Amino acid sequence: MFLDMKSSTTIAENLGHVRYFEMLKEYFFDLSVAVIDYAGTIYQYAGDEMIVSWKRKDGLKNNNCIECFFAMKSALEQQAEKYNRKFGILPAFKAGLHFGMVTAGEIGSLKKEIIFTGDVLNTSARIQGLCNHFDADLLVSEDLAKILHLPAIYEMRSVGENLLKGRSKPMEIFSISASQI
User: If 0-12 CB within 10 Å is exposed, 13-18 middle and 19+ buried, where does residue 131 land?
Assistant: First the structure.
């Protein structure tokens, strides 16, 4: 899951870099509880983006990958007063999900790091990048949509086929929303 804060540039400009960083620390802390609760792993932070991964069975079990997103949303809403008081804004986010194989390994000589590579990362990022275009908070790939077993509180609808950058064939993308959170 590639999870990206909405309007982060505007927020950073309004808060200034020090207060923005303080907000980011609290934001990531508040979102992290859901990652733990729904068996995810935070792979990486990239600016205002959080990249969360699951082993396939853990992400699909009880729809953990979807439930995590909505638990994160709920966690921020429960902290609305704190964010509004301290920063004058309640941050929001959007996310893209896809699944597939990744290769993990260590790279670097001066600074070593474990990285994931594979099409699934690029595809997840491209899907998340479509959220604004489709006015959606959560978009998932057709591949993932086909294997999810969502309860009735969720509505999944196709936003159409999209040719994602770097891919040769279009992929159908689905939005998922909750009738109650």
Answer: buried
